[in-house]
Amino acid sequence: MSKKIACLFFNITLFNKSASDKKENFKDDTFFANNAINSFKTFHPDVDIHYVTDDNFKQYLEEFNISEYYDDLALILLKFIEQLMLVKGYTKVIRLGIDTFTCSRLDEFIDNDDFDAMFSSGPPYQFLQTEYWIPLIETFEHNSQNYQDVSFINADVTCINNLKMASLLYEVTIKYWTGHQDQGGMNYCYINQKELGIKAKIVDFPYIKTDVLYNVRSKGIACGGNQMYKGNLWNGNYKDPNSSIIGNVYPTFTYYIKDNKLYTSDHKQIKVFHYAEALGVKTKEEYNETLNEIKTTWFNKETIEFLTHQCNCKFN
Fold first, then answer.
1. Claim: this prediction has a pTM higher than 0.90
2. 85-101, pLDDT tens digit by residue?
3. 282, 225 in Cβ contact below 8 A?
């Protein structure tokens, strides 16, 4: 069977009901979404892009014949993945957050049809616990040494390979609902894949053995977010009183280019970069401050030139 692949981007604010907590940081965005979509297009001209916004959201609902749905952005996003397969006949759906950029062809997603779902690594949150699941602390051997890593999944870079998995992920997310939303459903599915009768994989895990990175792990120690602030590197969220400054060089500033590929300082190729700074829930002042740092101080000149000329991103 020939592949028919879609990539789904979501940028809607319709679910923000009250004026008191209304966050519309991305509403007038001209940086993140454009760079996310244009960079993905650059390496995947053969993949159909579906960019869902406030302007076309109702049109998609009509096309998918969705009249009732849970009033939650994460769940409607999962429903759209399912409907892209059911209604439009896609055999594979990649989901990317608009706060990402793509800097290589995603071969680990595109070429692999053996797994029902392919996920990507979030921060190694060893002590995280929910009512339904706890991230696995997995042990691996590498170069005759044993290592441990935490298989915690971040939802914003995901590939679903069939309709059965899309429907199951939607159902599991609802059944085992936590504050982690669809990310919780993905972690539950990965941990319980044998019982669920599926095959799931984290494409850039464990860190010590992977050659490629698809999510926040390329941010090094700063993978938890809010750890690079005003020129200082923190060992946790800078707002946390228990965090402390551990340096003044951002891990993102140490990237290098080789053979038209982007690498971390420890020689992992970055295929998808995820900013993952909770931009949607920051105050407008915090959002603008972070955006300015991303444009001016996060990356060295070599990296900016690569993203501009090779990935069709704009940093001005």
1. yes
2. 999 999 999 999 999 99
3. no
